[in-house]
Amino acid sequence: MKKSIMELEDISRKLEPVNNKRAHWNTSVQKYADNFLDEFNQNNTFVVSENMGKGILDLSIEDEGKPIEEVLQCLKENVDTPNINPASGGHFGYIPGGGVFTTALGDYLAAITNRYAGIFFACPGGVRMENMLLRWMCKMVGYPVTALGNLTSGGSIANLSAITTARDAKGIKAKDVDRCVIYMTKQLHHCVQKSLRVAGMKESIVRYIPMDSSFKMIPEKLNIQIEQDKANGLLPFMVFGSAGTTDTGAIDPLKKIGGIAKENKLWFHVDAAYGGFFMLSNRIKPAFKGIELSDSIAIDPHKGLFLSYGIGAVLIKDTDALYQTHHYTANYMQDAFNLDEDPSPADLSPELTKHFRGLRMWISLQLLGVAPFRAALEEKILLCQYFYEEIQKLGFEVGPEPDLSIAIFRYVPKTEDANAYNLKLVKQIMQDGRIFLSSTTIDGAYWIRFAVLSFRTHLKQVDLALQLLGNLVK
Ligand SMILES: *Cc1c(COP(=O)(O)O)cnc(C)c1O
């Protein structure tokens, strides 16, 4: 038996690369990363490719490991080249962010030390760190010091957590679901619909409240609808507001919605996945007035804090409500409980074993300080305003004046169909590849979106976008 154990040990020890190998792998990965940042990231934002990454399938998974050179080459060709390059400053599609370098340092250390920050007993410092970050965000949005939340993998899960918490806090049982009424606008992010389904609330009644010409909820209409629903014996339950919609960056009248929610005892959730971090700027903060009246907020550090993908947050004013929905005890965990000086993420989220995602955010804020984040956010707002003004000079039609850093625009040609023409424009931009733009359809009209949120987007990239668009419609 010992012989077999030793033979297996021999092979399994490969899992711990020693000295030379570790150094070689480290340098190779670092070189790859440097090369990415210095060169191939800068060249293109969209790369039209023939094989669409199919080569990844050619490098099969086998018993023996491969040289790192071969593995990285495969990664470069098939993953890091075709289609959208979200690290590029020319990325104006969807909601860009960029992925600040320090995220990688945090992830690297989190992966090496593999601290388990799900339960206070296992890693009290890590749990304190994640809670400290959540309290920092709670403070930014004007929540009381007793509020907390959870670091999630992104905004969709943050919205889901808020919905399940609201459902339980309002005592909604399965038998009530088809009488429950949920209020939102058609501009609310689609992940909420998905989350409602996941949360077992698919049969609830969704009321789309009309919007004004800037795509913001009309609070008076919300009020009327709630009254009607109450009179009809339904259960008004939850209202959603957006603090920066994905389509146009619009902020709903949060203060008025908050007042109506309170009067009618509705759970008020604000989706600030895109817009939330603009509150770091005192100049922009007033636009979010009333967000502090909400019961819960979704906010994405992998958007407005420019961290690499994989970190969102849900903030909940009533921490106990979050706990009631998510805590659990198991016999095998008996040593871990009742020692908490600070709530454990495992009691505030569906996750148990989890990525120590707080470290990437903490190390970024500690190393860089808040000032460059705030400046970048203010810069993006101005860049979007600049674009909004300049694009009109080129003969384009624009949507509402941007609240934040997203503008919509389209070119209306004299003879051609406008929708088809703008679709063609987006395709031409994609073929060129130096910048990337995405589009949306609002009330049947095709609009091109200009979303400025990559920390790498500066005046140079915006001018390039204007120049490209100007040339295309000449
Ligand atoms: C991006 C976004 C979401 C979804 O968040 P993910 O991090 O992509 O899961 C939700 N709401 C808004 C307003 C968003 O911009």
In short:
With 474 residues, this protein is an alpha/beta fold. 42% of the residues lie in helices and 13% in strands.
Explain what this protein looks like in three dimensions:
The chain is of the alpha/beta class and 474 residues long. The chain has three domains: 14-85; 108-368, Aspartate Aminotransferase, domain 2; 371-472, Aspartate Aminotransferase, domain 1 (Alpha-Beta Complex), CATH 3.90.1150. Helices cover 42% and strands 13% of the residues. It contains 15 helices and 13 strands. It has helices at residues 2-12, 19-43, 68-78, 101-113, 124-141, 155-169, 191-198, 219-231, 254-263, 301-304, 319-326, 358-368, 371-393, 418-432, 459-473; strands at 46-47, 83-84, 148-152, 180-184, 205-208, 235-242, 267-272, 296-299, 312-316, 397-398, 406-410, 438-442, 445-451. The strands form three sheets. The protein has a seven-stranded mixed beta sheet with strand order 3-9-8-7-6-4-5, sandwiched between helices. The longest helix has 25 residues, at 19-43. The protein is globular. The chain starts with a helix and ends with a helix. The model has no long low-confidence stretch (mean pLDDT 96). The site of pyridoxal-5'-phosphate has 12 residues, from α6.
Features:
Aspartate Aminotransferase, domain 2; Aspartate Aminotransferase, domain 1; seven-stranded mixed beta sheet; 13% strand; alpha/beta; binds pyridoxal-5'-phosphate; 3 domains; 474 residues
